[in-house]
Amino acid sequence: MTPLIVDTDPGVDDAYAIALAARASEVELRAVTAVFGNVDLATTTTNARRLLGMLGRGDVPLGVGAERPLIHPTTQRAADVHGDDGLGGVAERFGPLGPEPAGRALDVIADVLSAATEPVVLAAIGPLTDVALLLATRPDLAERIGRLVVMGGSIGIGGNVSAGAEFNVWSDPEAARRVLVEERVPTTLVPLDLTHVVTVDRAWLSALAASGPVGEALAATRDVYARGEALGVDRVPIHDAVALLEAVAPGTLATVPLELEVDTSLGPARGTVLADRRGRAPGGRTVDVAVPDGTDVDGVRAALLRRLGDHM
Ligand code: RIB
Ligand code: CA
To answer: Which of 14, 91, 261, 263 has its CA 20 to 30 A from that of 169?
Structure first.
């Protein structure tokens, strides 16, 4: 089975993603690392412990990652979307905490990469600070990452935290530029362009809630999360779960290779991801960007429900 590491800022949709990763038969979840983002690091770390505990995965080492971005601190979190507890105001529904963290995220990730006998998939579903730091401090381990799957960015539909920027990239644009533009690890980006199409409705959430205790807890986050992620329709995006589905089942999402740029200025476009479609000189670094065109959106929703349901 493919070794998998998840770097995460739980986070409601992160909770869906971690549940999917913990149960996916195609992968072996070797580590979870918590990073600041939706809420502060202490809370994302506690939530990661709670999720691993609820999923019966106390065997998975938890690493504590970055508390803030590389360069310019951002005070804005996303408690308005994920609730002050980061889990839709129902954190207690996810049960008691799992084991204490095993150490610092970079050390936990480095241990997994060093010990792996096959390429590791690294799924990054929060700000990219930990990934940027890992690649900067341990370039020797980059070749052990077979694939990086990132939830983030928006290349054509505008942002969710500013006119152009998506929250994960906006939270640390310098880290995002390092990872998406400067590094060379094979990368798939799952942007808002797709996650705002693969939304789930009340019927889907009801089916999930009826599937068992994990599905019930996940669905219970809806009221707070839906208000925060208001898309003007009675549906919610579970961004990170879509990215993890691609991580555990490569090729589920249709992708196009694009040369990307990330705005790291301090102006109104800060954190915006630009796709350069000019087809410049061959050999330029491209990222496989997931797009709705060619993705079986209904099939993705069904797969998410099947994988997240306790007994489905
Ligand atoms: O913009 C959506 C992303 O930002 C998701 O990863 C969500 O959890 C938040 O981190
Ligand atoms: Ca997230």
So the answer is: 91
